[in-house]
What does this fold into?
Amino acid sequence: WMLLRKSGNRCSAAVPVATRQVEAGQPLAIPRAGPDQILVVAFTERRASTAVRLGRALDKSFHPLTVGAGGSTFRLPRALADGPLLVSLPARAGWPAAFGGSTAYEALTFSEAGTATFSAISLDLDTGP
It folds into this structure.
């Protein structure tokens, strides 16, 4: 468990840093984030074939979207794929490692072809809670 309390906003607006086309299963290198930046990704899949779309409508498990990161594979709901999905969070942000703090994936793989757009969010870590 983790208890959170409301505090001031320490984040800037997201600034796009890279957009890359990716094929299904292709490793996608993640751009480097600055020491005080969060890096997020939004994934937009290429339009699926008519047969695949029909299969999805009839059976949700027909072709699930997955993302691989850090040696693990996660099922990614299509409605959430456009992000933001966290790929790098600096340790200085103060978020506990057990809850994703100090996350810094080096590569991603998506089970489908599409476009990945990476954005950086700067943190003002000198501001107290």
